[in-house]
Amino acid sequence: MKRRNILGLAGAGAAGIAAAGAVTVRRRDEPATDPGAALPFYGAHQAGIVTPAQDRLHFVAFDVITRTREDLVSMLEAWTAAAARMTAGRDAGTHGAVGGVPEAPPDDTGEAIGLPASGLTLTIGFGPGLFRDADGRDRFGIADRRPDALAELPRFPGDALDPAISGGDICVQACAHDPQVAVHAIRNLARIGMGVVSVRWSQLGFGRTSSTSAGQPTPRNLFGFKDGTANLKAEEASALDEHLWVHAGDGPDWMTGGSYLVTRKIRMIIETWDRTSLREQEAIVGRTKGDGAPLTGAAEFDEPDLAAAGPDGLPVIATDAHVRLAHPSAHGGARLLRRGYNYVDGSDGLGRLDAGLFFIAYQRDPRRQFIPVQTALARRDALNEYIRHVSSAIFACPPGLPAADDFWGRSLFS
Amino acid sequence: MKRRNILGLAGAGAAGIAAAGAVTVRRRDEPATDPGAALPFYGAHQAGIVTPAQDRLHFVAFDVITRTREDLVSMLEAWTAAAARMTAGRDAGTHGAVGGVPEAPPDDTGEAIGLPASGLTLTIGFGPGLFRDADGRDRFGIADRRPDALAELPRFPGDALDPAISGGDICVQACAHDPQVAVHAIRNLARIGMGVVSVRWSQLGFGRTSSTSAGQPTPRNLFGFKDGTANLKAEEASALDEHLWVHAGDGPDWMTGGSYLVTRKIRMIIETWDRTSLREQEAIVGRTKGDGAPLTGAAEFDEPDLAAAGPDGLPVIATDAHVRLAHPSAHGGARLLRRGYNYVDGSDGLGRLDAGLFFIAYQRDPRRQFIPVQTALARRDALNEYIRHVSSAIFACPPGLPAADDFWGRSLFS
């Protein structure tokens, strides 16, 4: 049953319903879109990577608790069917929240009845532990298929990671313009996976801190600065090919067309930052707060002049400024596709907001991209005084599914 | 400086910018509104009570840490000025995030630059501890002004309250159609209050679980059921007068035109609920899942027939069904204005989503409204197997401010 049939609208086309239904809070300088609409689930690459960043995130990492390969593969098949349905704005299962027999649990949880697809994307990734667990066991007979690029990240200086909210065997990134739709999707996958997987950790996020399309204005992080000005954009086809997608020959065939995902939960020490002067904030970032222009330029997209010196002979952009240390020129041209979200998890019991950035980055090879960039930042970034990395994870996200008879993980497990 | 002036739009009227800027994800059966627009801050009653429920919540409870009445009053004056500015879509302070002198911290944190007012409302309330603290001290010389209706709630059967996320001396409810706008507002109030107040706890919420206007469809909670069908609505003028607003003579004059606020964080045991049959779920609630109709009726707004018996002679709506126990007829006609939000706080470390309902209810007198209703529910409600009340608080929300020379708490402190 379609999610909407319950409300008696079975005759109307999904697109028509969505168009009538929904748009989202957007900046007034952002082009009109239809955030209620459904996005395609099938394609050469997974959705949710170069898809223009939606407003809300529910990210989940699962531990696999079954020891049986067949159970795991069956669940991935069931997940794929449910994901295809939910991203189209339908119920997770064919009987919906009120169908089937009254004596059985519903096969959808119901809280999204009447809500449009809301641009939902679901993106899956496999963690290193799926290939060989912490005890070295090859639980599912796939240890020899682990890409070399999919290794646990090194420990970076200053890391304050909580293992309970780090790692995971499988992740799903749900993005949508309505948080109830994103939460509904993750919850139904968890329900379908009962006995096979268990939620290890999950994270809600809001507001885009990275724009992934040239049509989107650069949003602001909770430091109040524009974040992601130099991000890879969906329109840069040759750069995506070079920096984002895994090529044939990069590693095992099953990852060709996929991408590696690194997540970092970066707590911001909001109250200390808010007591810092504007001049100091701008020196730390290397950009102005209002326009986001580099301190050597006048407009946001001006290229930072890292060689420029001021009247005092010192660099205009400080040697420990964030924009300098993260700049591709410092890392052999390495770039990332960032897709992070702001988060607020309440307060921390010490009178401070528990808030920051849930950093998400996709890339062709973390050994040449995230790891060297983060190594440089962790050593020297002036921002480090105001942030703590509290969770970390890495996943291999396989390519997209070309057609409806395929399923998440088929290329890995067959 | 206006929040938007930074982007060079000082010449455009706020309403025009907002209208160009924003609408929100809404159900397709919901009338079009303009969620980017600013709502009035001044009025006989505080905004954020009968205001049609916005999509997002950031609720905060503060401990007052100063011992000085003058510091507290000064902060309330500064808060009021900032609240009036922010609800109009402006910066928290007159110099904004990039104004003033570069050597000083900005007087706005900047993350809402470029975002419209987004229907932001800020609603303040005073807790019992402001009048007399846990040690019995009258810190601010107002102990004799505490309304009798503002007393700590009794312990209800089954309560599993965490003191760290309960109570508080002052609360602020921020509601908006954009979470970044709601979070920005609370953060700036906390910043302004530094040294006077400290964040005790805060809660994010999304999706409306109660409609407060006849023009809004009834939303669904995370059990998948419509929630708040029988809620007080903004259009019911005489019922609001009877059940919502404090009358002259009800207690101290400073609360006339105000309302009492009860919050309860209600964790839902999602995974257990999702394994329950549809028939059982509907029997527990007393309504159908699809339409929200009472089990004795055909449509959502049909009045439940609590006397109806089935062919087996048993009541159609069970004696422990939620709709029966919460029905006004069981409590001398008592009704509440509910304004709750769904929440997901990640997972709980045991593989379960940490999710549920952040219940918010406004009323004229909790002794005749929330307390008897919750007493009946806590004793017998069949839903109790699937929920845990983990936080609780009560606040006295004073009347609205009639004009710009007034401030939050003036009637209490003068």
Task: Give an overview of the whole structure.
The structure is a homodimer of 414-residue chains. In chain A, helix 2 packs antiparallel against helix 4 (179-192). Chain A has helices spanning 14-21, 69-87, 128-131, 179-192, 237-243, 270-273, 278-285, 322-325, 370-380, 410-413, and strands spanning 56-64, 121-126, 170-176, 197-208, 259-268, 337-338, 341-347, 353-363, 387-397. The relative contact order of chain A is 0.18. In chain A, strands 1, 2, 3, 4, 5, 6, 7, 8 and 9 form a nine-stranded antiparallel beta sheet that branches. The first copy, chain A, is built from ten helices and nine strands. In chain A, 20% of the residues lie in helices and 18% in strands. In chain A, strand 7 and strand 8 (353-363) form a beta hairpin. Chain A is α+β, with helices and mostly antiparallel strands and 414 residues long. The longest helix of chain A is centred in the N-terminal third of the chain and has 19 residues, at 69-87. Chains A and B meet through helix 1, strand 1, helix 4, strand 4 and helix 7 of A and helix 1, strand 1, helix 4, strand 4 and helix 6 of B. Chains A, B: Keywords: Heme, Iron, Metal-binding, Oxidoreductase, Peroxidase, Signal. Chains A, B: One of its GO terms (molecular function) is peroxidase activity. Chains A, B: Involved in the recovery of exogenous heme iron. Extracts iron from heme while preserving the protoporphyrin ring intact. Chains A, B: It is found in: Cell envelope. Chains A, B: Its main location: other.
